[in-house]
Write a structure and sequence with these properties.
The protein is α/β, with parallel strands linked by helices. The chain has ten helices and eight strands. The strands form two sheets. A six-stranded parallel beta sheet has the order 5-4-1-6-7-8, with helices on both faces. It has a two-stranded antiparallel sheet with strand order 2-3. The radius of gyration is 18 Å and the shape is globular. The termini are close together.
């Protein structure tokens, strides 16, 4: 079945943004007199949006106790909105200091654009930051739709969230693509969940930010699991 629409995740799929996210997390931790975390430690917390990132990195609300930071905000802390405001303020200062595209990304997006394939970014990164990053890296010009966390449509109405069947329906409506000709490319659990909910195929990149063993166990089709973005692009060309 030919591909007429590609939906990409952003962090860990198109871009390696872990250094800049970790820097903003650590400036936020410093704001609350907490010691910094390593980039790899923060990378393990990326993928489910800013709120979950900060719940893990500052409150220690982790699935795996081994990953809990040594020092966190006290359990009585309840104002996560304040923490989010501090983090977003830090991250918005310049979210593209160390962030870079993965090898082959710009070339692939340009080629698909020239071939008339609709391309969409669907991410849990806050919508204004996602758009700023994509503009700065020169990728936005190849994209038909960019949907970040808390995005709104042209009428100011909320766009359905990542992970829902409705957001896939929204993308199909916006691009005019057929469901069976649409593929999602991502590197973590929310990407697989979105594809399953929306009834579309999912190419899973095991070399991104997600746990590769977990992703392989969740992937609906192991034949669509690859190591890198370049492998994903080559696979898309064969579908």
């Amino acid at each position: 079945m030919p591909v007429s629409c590609i939906i990409y995740d952003l962090d860990g799929t198109l871009i390696d943004s872990a250094d800049d996210i970790a820097a903003a997390v650590n400036r936020t931790r410093a704001h609350y007199d907490l010691e910094p975390l390593s980039v790899d430690h923060v990378k393990a917390f990326i993928g489910d949006g800013v709120r979950r990132l900060l719940e893990r990195a500052l409150l220690g609300m982790v699935e795996d106790p081994v990953m809990r930071p040594t020092r966190c905000l006290p359990k009585r802390w309840t104002d996560l909105d304040e923490v989010m405001e501090v983090f977003i303020g830090e991250y918005c200062l310049d979210p593209v200091i160390e962030t870079k595209t993965y090898p082959g990304v710009a070339e692939a997006l340009k080629r698909w654009y020239e071939e008339g394939v609709a391309q969409v970014v669907l991410t849990n990164k806050p919508d204004p930051i996602a758009k700023k990053v994509l503009e700065t890296l020169g990728l936005a010009k190849y994209l038909d739709v960019i949907i970040g966390k808390n995005a709104v449509d042209e009428d100011g109405k909320p766009v359905p969230p990542k992970g829902s069947a409705e957001v896939v329906d929204y993308i199909l409506y916006q691009t005019g693509a057929e469901r069976d000709e649409t593929v999602l490319v991502g590197d973590d659990r929310p990407d697989i969940a979105t594809a399953k909910a929306g009834g579309i195929r999912c190419v899973v990149i095991l070399g991104g930010y997600g746990n590769p063993e977990e992703l392989a166990s969740l992937a609906p089709d192991l034949d669509l699991c690859v190591a890198t973005f370049q492998d994903a692009d080559a696979l898309l060309q064969r579908l």
